[in-house]
Amino acid sequence: MAPTRHRPWLIRYVVLLGVLAVAVPLVATAVMGPDSYLRIARDDPGRLTGLIATFVRAVADLSSLVTVGALVSALVAGKLRPVQDAAARRQLDVAEWFEPIVVRRAAACWVISSGLLIALDSADSNGYALGRIVDPQALWFAMFSGDAGRSWMVTCVAAIIVLVTSVLTVRWIGYAVALWAALVGSLAPVMVGQILVGPRHDFGSDSGIYQTVAGQILLGMAVVQTLRVATGRRPRVLDRVHWRSTATVLLAVLVVTEGVLLWFKLAGSSPFADATGWLSLTQFVALGLLGAGLTAVHRGRITAGVSLLAGGTSVFVAAGLAMMRIPPPQFFVPTSISQIFFGFDLRVPPGLASLAGHWRPNLLFVVAAAVAVACYLAGVRRLARKGERWPVGRTIAWVLGWLVIVVVTSSGLGKYSGADFAVHMAVHMSLSMVAPIPLVLGGPITLALRALPAAAKDAQPGPHEWVLAVLHSRPLQALYHPLFVFAVYIGSYYVLYLTNAFGTLMRFHWAHQLMNVHFLVVGCLYFGLVIGVDRTPHQLPSLAKLAVLLGAMPFHAFFGVILMSDGAIIGDSFYQHLELPWKPDLAATQHVAGGIAWAGSEIPLLIVVVVLALQWAIQDGRAARRIDRHLDNGLDDSYDTYNAMLERLARRTETTKEHR
Questions:
Q1: Is 579 helix (H, G, I), strand (E, B) or coil?
Q2: Running DSSP on this structure, what letter comes out for residue 535?
Q3: E strand or H helix that includes residue 81
Q4: Across residues 423-444, what is the average pLDDT?
Q5: Which of 47, 357, 400, 447 could form a disulfide with 438 if both were Cys (CB 3.0 to 4.6 A apart)?
């Protein structure tokens, strides 16, 4: 793609779109006035507070969008840094300075706006006028009496991490870490927003997670690439071979999740009967503009394409910000206590029939499982096309691991895991000790490195080089240190369940999902050290693996004993608030949970011991066959050398005797 010329009109066009994205929610706030607060039984903080909070929120969302887009653009268009030592592995760096400059400026704006929103959004949601938050006690109460202030604290910290990282380094892995922080910061205020309220909010929250991640990446990249074209730079990301398929998938995710969110927010009402429906339909129009822009870019019409992409981004963001200021219909649907916490009712107690038959898809894990299995099978197919063979057992293990995850999160086990502590413990043990075993035996990283083509010497690095950069990075080496993994794997049980954290986190769907993800990831890290097929940053000898495995057993047993013998009920306040149709015996349920934690930990660990022994036997057999081949081919003279040494020792002994 040839370099583009400087286009001042395109810069003015982007600025105009930014003004539009800010103006629309401001108009919505002004039009709604006190009604947007009074309809949901909140105190009106005054029009000025609402307008300022809306303006700063728009600035924060736009700056986070640009930050993520610049980070992704820098990562996708990274370059391999030459090294003096030809045998050394080349390092990935950011290719040029445009993206780092954009990241620094956008992140600085994000830090300031999110920091202001800690106070402003807290005041807006608590009905405090601006003059009232000058009082430190009132401000402190507003910040910590609700979720809004705390979510913006998380966002502000994430933005600071991005800003500091972008100032200190231009290394690819540094930007990868900053991207993770930016996505977490982008998710925090979304998770405590409108998708947290009402029946079926479990579907809404999971869809919101996927939409936020996909939107930040696709829309952010669209803005940054538009800025590159406007300033006369080549849109390097648009040159990438996989850009079209990746962008199409992200757009499809936005379309599907927007449909789910529309269904959730309307709560059975017509999309034409409420402002929320009209704004959501406007977002579908914006997605249509994005699709037209992608099509134009793929056909080589770069200027027209990026103009449509920027326009679609502005409309999508403007409608989304305006929607935040308008209470959606699902706010006014009669809701039970169970629906408030879980998003659905639990009318019958957990039993064999309900656990096996009452399925409710956990969208977060179902989608993740489908993507993981599809990518794995695509890698196996690519290897087959190259004439390489991939062990069938590894494929079966990978599919089996994700099947376990889907079953325990989407069957009655997942549905009742929030209301029954014993079921929750069964799900916890399955995610941390059962599913990880087949997953780490599947060897996904090894498959990725074999299936993904390596970039040519002078070509731009691609996914193969990205995977290698992550595997050899210092953050991963620190994360995968055996002592750290062991401490987190064991300590998570005690920190979560023997403190007040469990009862607090169980009140929110996103927090429950976060616990599930934590259990799964830590379990994969732990068992990856012991029996994983993929090579870890810290390779342990066989005896050390056995020690790591056996060392966890007494901690699990002791944890189970604590649950069975402790008089204090874990999460007692939370379970008392559920007001379920049946009355569970919390003490008996906790006793059963302790038994599950005890027995459920011992059995998988014993299975892993067997797997570890089989791996040792296989490794010894391979080593023996390799030595035999070397002996047959005359390539190994270790036995001859050993026999010669014995002969020399024998002659030395005889010589000593003769001298005596």
A1: coil
A2: P
A3: strand 79-81
A4: 93
A5: 400
> DSSP letters along 363-374, please?
HHHHHHHHHHHH
Alpha-carbon distance values, 333 to 122, 146, 205, 275 (Å): 25, 22, 17, 16
3-state secondary structure of 10: helix
Torsion of CA 381, 382, 385, 387, to 10 degrees: -100
Whether pTM > 0.85 for this model: the answer is yes
Closest to 405 measured CA to CA, from 387, 383, 389, 427:
427
What tokens were used for 471?
Answer: 């595997």
Q: Is 149 exposed, middle or buried (0-12, 13-18, 19+ CB in 10 A)?
A: buried
Task: Quickly list DSSP for 284-334.
Answer: HHHHHHHHHHHHHHHTT-HHHHHHHHHHHHHHHHHHHHHHHTS--GGGGS-
How crowded is residue 123: how many other Cβ atoms within 10 Å of its Cβ?
A: 28
Residue-wise pLDDT for 191-245, tens only, equals 998 898 889 999 999 999 999 999 999 999 999 999 988 888 887 777 666 777 8
**How many residues make up the chain in this entry?**
660
What are the distances in angstroms from CA 540 to CA 482, 549, 576?
8, 12, 46
Q: What is the pLDDT of residues 582-594, one digit of tens each?
A: 888 888 999 999 9
Determine the pLDDT at residue 454. 83
Rounded CA-CA distance 426/483 in Å is 26
**Residue 508 three-state SS:** coil
CA neighbor of 583 nearest in space, from 422, 368, 349, 377: 349
Task: Give the closest residue to 209 by CA, choosing from 248, 268, 256, 246.
Answer: 256
How much is the average pLDDT of 26-41?
Answer: 88
| pLDDT of 552 | 83
**Phi and psi at residue 129, to the nearest 5°:** -70, 160
- Higher-scoring residue by pLDDT: 106, 297: 106
Residue 594 · residue 563 · CB < 8 Å: yes
Look at residue 1 in the predicted model and tell me its pLDDT: 44
Q: Give the whole-angstrom CA distance, residue 363 versus residue 370.
A: 10
Q: Which residues pair with 171 in a beta bridge?
A: 93
- Partners of 93 in beta bridges: 79, 171
Q: Tell me the Cα Rg of the chain.
A: 29
Q: 24: part of which helix (H) or strand (E)?
A: helix 8-32
For 424-479, give the DSSP string.
HHHHHHIIIIITHHHHHHT-HHHHHHHHSPPPPTTSPP-HHHHHHHHHT-HHHHHH
Q: Are 78 and 172 in contact (CB under 8 A)?
A: yes
First to last CA, the chain: 90
Residues contacting 241, CB < 8 A, separation 6+: 462
What pLDDT was estimated at residue 3?
A: 44
Q: Is the per-residue pLDDT at 88 higher than 50?
A: no
Reported as a pLDDT band with limits 50, 70 and 90, residue 626 is low
Residue 361 makes CB contacts below 8 A (sequence gap 6+) with 410
Beta carbons within 8 Å of 575's beta carbon, 6+ residues apart: 419, 421, 569, 584, 586
Residue 11 buriedness (CB in 10 A; 0-12 / 13-18 / 19+)? middle
Report the Cα 16 to chain-centroid distance in Å.
Answer: 33
